[in-house]
Amino acid sequence: MSRKHESGANRTAASLRQLRTQIDKLDLQILKLINERAALAAEVGKIKDEEGSEVFSPAREEEILSNMVAANKGPLSAEAVRGVFREIISGARALQRVLKVAYLGPDYSFSHLAAVERFGQSVDYIRVGSIAAVFEEVNRGHADFGVVPLENSTDGRIADTLDMFMRLPQLKICAEVRLRIHHNLLANCEQQEIRRVYSKPQALSQCRNWLSKNVPHASLHEVASTATAAELAQREPGAAAVASRQAAVRYSLRILFEDIEDSPYNETRFAVIGTQECRRSGKDKTSIMFRVPHQPGALVDALNVFKQAKVNLTWIESFPAKSPRAEYVFFADFEGHVDDAKIKKMLDTLKKHTAELSILGSYPISEVSG
Predict the structure, then answer these.
(1) What is the pTM of this model?
(2) CA geometry: angle 367, 115, 226, nearest 5 deg
(3) Which residues pair with 128 in a beta bridge?
(4) CA dihedral 192, 193, 196, 202 (to 10 degrees)
(5) How far is CA 97 from the centre of its chain?
(6) Which CATH number fits domain 24-91: 1.10.10.60, 1.20.59.10, 1.10.645.10, 3.40.190.170?
(7) How far is residue 130's CA from residue 98's CA, in Å, rounded to a whole number?
(8) How many H-runs (helices) and E-runs (strands) does the chain carry?
(9) CATH second-level architecture of 184-257?
(10) 202 vs 211: CA distance, rounded Å
(11) Fold of the domain spanning 277-369
(12) Residues in Cβ contact with 301 at an 8 Å cutoff, skipping those fewer than 6 apart
């Protein structure tokens, strides 16, 4: 090596050492501040305990995350900032009490990813095999909260979730998680060698056009979850899975193609279910379940209540009622909180136009992530 090159290499090494020393100093400052913050959060927890308040405060947590994202000037992305502070909040919350959260497994399913997105890693996760089991774990007190899919922007409502709200209307929606769903084709073989593609029905449906165009020679097989699909793709020669990037890492699969969903806006909304009621955040939505009298114009009369009150109805689904007659139960979301004077008045009027009305919960409106 020439003296010139040796001198340049020495300068580079010196610059790296200097930068790394600065980073080490900042890391120690960050650690000190995180622990100071955690100590304050622990004091808040003591006050909550004295007042009998809940450990999980969706409105407050959403406020913190939104403030941090709004204040972010980069170079970290908004998603990275949200992820860092989500884990800080999760760790601080665990100092008060470690929450038990049930979700539809296995690990690295989208329900699992949604649960982590909402609660972070510092909770006790309970993996179950069905949406009904998530509701039952919460209803029996085995879990503090559950995370269940509510609707998908491509495939619409999740029937099993709506059915369980009809069976257990005493459970409330405490928060929501809006997760951008990115599907990937995972395999340990080449594209032309794929003979079977595994995934859950919704994932295959959300990628049907891409799959028919790019792997027309492969048969499609429905399984319980995208994580199960990844496990099968790992074991079987000539098999592939439609699943998440995290599932590829977990099951040591190659990502042959990324973002194969037919719609770039593919999103699933998850409900966090529990027994607690969420306080107002100032930017809330409310979910209800109602049934109208079995007579002409009854649904129109009920929906007209929203129009007259100038309340924005953001989602409505019909679902067959469990009755001998051909009746339907309606699920709806609208902007506002049950503690808002305007919403209280509107709900009082709505009761007069319905045969049955259940408030499933008011909670902060969530931004899409992922």
Answers:
(1) 0.86
(2) 105
(3) 104
(4) -40
(5) 22
(6) 1.20.59.10
(7) 23
(8) 12, 16
(9) 3-Layer(aba) Sandwich (3.40)
(10) 13
(11) Alpha-Beta Plaits (3.30.70)
(12) 292, 353
